[in-house]
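Worked Example 4.2. Consider the chain below.
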Amino acid sequence: MTWNFEWDAQKRQDNIKKHGVDFTEALQVFRDPLRLEELDDRWAAQEERWQVIGVTSLGLLFVVYTIRNKKYRIISARRATKNERRDYRTR
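Applying the procedure from the previous section yields the following structure tokens:
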């Protein structure tokens, strides 16, 4: 499977400032064969958004993305919360 990623450059910089996580780092979650991925239906009226938790060199990250024009568009990335880490480990 080919993965094509994109993001908004300003959103990337804002995410680094807010969460200390670069979108380039967030890409690693997609290489985690044990990643936990689910549809975030809170945005269903606007667009299909997905949440994924996976291991990176920073530890477990929580990433939100959508698919536009056959590309995975990263929306946000941050370190997983305590509850999200538990969900990842106990599923």
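The chain has a mean pLDDT of 94. Residues 40 and 89 are 20 Å apart (CA to CA). Compare this with Example 4.1 before moving on.
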